[in-house]
Amino acid sequence: MEIYLSIDDTDNLESCGTGELASQIAAYIHQQGWGECSYITRHQLFIHPDIPYTSHNSSMCFQALIEDHALGDVINYASDFLARESAEGSDPGLCVALPETLRCVVEVVDFGHRAKKVVLTKAQAYELALHSGAHLSQHGGTGQGVIGALAGIGLRMGGQDGRLKGKIAFVADPIDNGIDAASVLQHKWVSSIQTEQGEVLCPDARIRLIDKVKIVQIEGHPVLLVQRNEQGDWQNLSRQQLKAY
User: Fold this and answer.
1) Pairing of strands 178-180, 206-208
2) What is the per-residue pLDDT for 67?
3) In a shared domain, residues 83 and 180
4) Which of 39, 177, 205, 233 suits 143 as a labelling partner, its CA being 20 to 30 A distant?
């Protein structure tokens, strides 16, 4: 079966980040033979004085294909893991959803987009989780992380939000730091290279790599976004330009 798993608010300024904990959960699922996990996406949420967060207020989400019998094991492990490994002072939340049986999908996706713009409450998150059939649970502190955890599910399912966790390293030409699009597309987590306007690059196009190369989610697929620079050459978007994702 396919599942989405999202976590939020697990860290403090001295601890490892929420993305690292998501990676450890995904790795354990694989190690136990419960299933295979996808890339992890980071979803930026609303920054507001009424919302407690460590540094960026972002949730982490991944998809997984698991054995039907393993669903309870995954939820129990992730719950215990967050309760045990989340940092002091954090308010961790966990959300697990099955797209095949999830009700109110439009509302869940909308919740995710609203969480990027307005202050939402735990009560709203729990009410929507109850109606939609998603698992939502808190594992320490105030449990405020359930809001971001549910929002992460909605944003990942919506397919138009999120940056892939970590950076992807490519072997570029040392002279101009360029690389052919075909070489970039060989990476398992790059399905397309395109502009924000939707223009798709051909495999023989040359791309100049700048900054840390980050991949974003577009229409549910991992995409490298590019643009023309002042010299008219293709180059990837900078981290600053990708903040909207």
Assistant:
1) antiparallel
2) 97
3) no
4) 39
Whole-angstrom distance, CA of residue 161 vs CA of residue 84? 29
Q: Same domain for 48 and 96?
A: yes
Task: Kindly state the average pLDDT of the residues 132-151.
Answer: 94
Distances (CA, A) of 230 to 23, 227, 233: 38, 10, 7
Helix (H, G, I), strand (E, B) or coil at 16: coil
In angstroms, the CA 113 to CA 152 distance is 9
pLDDT digits (tens, 9 = 90+) for 47-71: 666 566 555 678 999 999 999 999 9
pLDDT at 13 over 70: no
Contacts of 151 (CB under 8 A, 6+ apart): 6, 8, 43, 45, 59, 111, 112, 114, 115, 116, 120
Answer yes or no: do 63 and 142 share one domain: yes
Tell me the two tokens of residue 194: 């395109």
Is the distance from CB of 230 to CB of 190 less than 8 angstroms?
no
**Cα 53 → chain centroid:** 17
Contact status, residue 22 vs residue 94, Cβ threshold 8 Å: no
pTM of the model: 0.91
Domain match, 70 and 159 both? yes
